Amino acid sequence: MANSKTVYIALLRGINVGGKNKIKMAELRSALENIGLFRVKTYIQSGNVLFVSEDDEDTLRKRMEEEIASSFGITLTVVLRTAEELQRIVENCPFSDELIEEAAASAVGESLYVALLPEAPPPSGVDKLAAAENGNDLYEIAGRDVYLLFRQSVRDAKLSANLAKLGVPATVRNWNTMSKLAAMTREMEA
């Protein structure tokens, strides 16, 4: 069991994207409170949920996925990180400021993203992604997280399409969202 004061971030994969799998955040908060999660907060409409629980990650993920399927009729993957893990993700970006600025100058929209996976990709998936043509875009795998740096547009990038080669579901968030979630976890822990 986790510490009773563990702050978690749940990143829901594939909700409110392109008008599909719509869930109102107020209804999501209510459903998650009904399964015993505490201090439930959401951030923007793309399925970012902060909460406190004393349960472990596997138990939480299963309960949350079952509740979302039951309440909303949507089958999806919930990716969880503790507040500490999220802080590490934000603090340990492997790309230099210069490289990020260079990418941002040529990118349409955001250039820096993180793909969050429920588990580390198998070596065969890592090899498949490495063998794929990813254009000028860069990535760095750190355990269950993949840092992504796009030099044009995330929407048209070969790297975006090739993430599935890892063989593990991924949910992707831009750097601004990751930074905001990290700030929100610090507030919840205070």
- Percentage of residues assigned to helices: 25-40%
What characteristic shape results from the CA principal axes? Answer: globular
Number of discrete helical segments: 7
Poorly predicted residue ranges: none
Our measurement of the CA-to-CA distance between the termini, rounded to an integer number of angstroms, reads 22 Å
Q: Could you please say which CATH topology of the largest domain applies here? A: Alpha-Beta Plaits
Q: Quickly give the CATH architecture of the largest domain.
A: 2-Layer Sandwich
Could you report the average pLDDT, rounded to the nearest whole number? 93
Largest sheet strand order: 2-3-1-4
The count of strands amounts to: 8
Secondary-structure content class: alpha+beta
Organism: Brevibacillus brevis
Protein name: DUF1697 domain-containing protein
Pfam families: DUF1697 (PF08002)
